[in-house]
Amino acid sequence: MERYVRDQLSQPCQSNNFADLEKELYIIATNLDNGDRVIFGDKEDQHEIPISLAVAASSALPMLYKPVRIGEKEYVDGGLRGTASIDLAIEEGASLVVVINPLVPFDNQLRDYIPYLDPEEGHLSKKGVRAVADQALRILSHSGLQYHIKQISRSHPEVDIILIEPRRDDYQMFQNNIMRYSARLVIAQHGFESVTLDLAEDYPRYKSILSRHGIKMTRRLVIEELAEIQSSGYDPDVIRSVLEARSSACTGARRNSQVCKLSRSLDDLIDLLDEKH
Predict the structure, then answer these.
(1) Quick one: which of 103, 113, 116, 32 has its CA closest to 74?
(2) Single residue among 58, 79, 100 that ends a domain in this structure
């Protein structure tokens, strides 16, 4: 993993050094020898640690990956001390926190989602020990995250928290191990589609939250971006260009161009139609 991230950050206009970043980046790991939470990127003396090495330490899930040694210390998955470190973001001044959580317990109550198993016998245990262990891990992780968000919301009611996670009956996200390299494209494709559709379906709520922080969201762009990526067969270059265009298309000098004015007019029209319906 460290080598893969290092190679990606060696591309032009990228950096593997915390000190080179324009925006703050914090990567969480757990000190194996004392159980403390460690935050890479928050101290100047840690800036010498490559980002790729910090990512490897943060992702070193016990039993799957060996601990990552940095200096004289060994580190494992940062999730052992909590699925999300929302408190850290708030301490750094965040008023809007977006949490992306890929692990939710699979809802198998109807027992008709699992392929190749008869609904009458479709209990998760029929999938074997791995399925049982995976479900148990998801239950522990998700309950901890829910508790963390609940506590943060109580102590910081002024902070908006958006939680993005799979539906409970999403078998695609249950059957594919998110840590498996060979499944990365399938998971990325399915995740992008499902999240985009959820954004469109729950558009009024997301729009209301984001507008409080000066972020404009339109259903039209969400659907158009998904269609463009789907038509390309999920070409990584197309995905990158779509995301880059989103952040730069109508900013700076381009803001007053005819295309951008037309785009804003269409968005305003859609907003009016949404309000009427």
Answers:
(1) 32
(2) 79
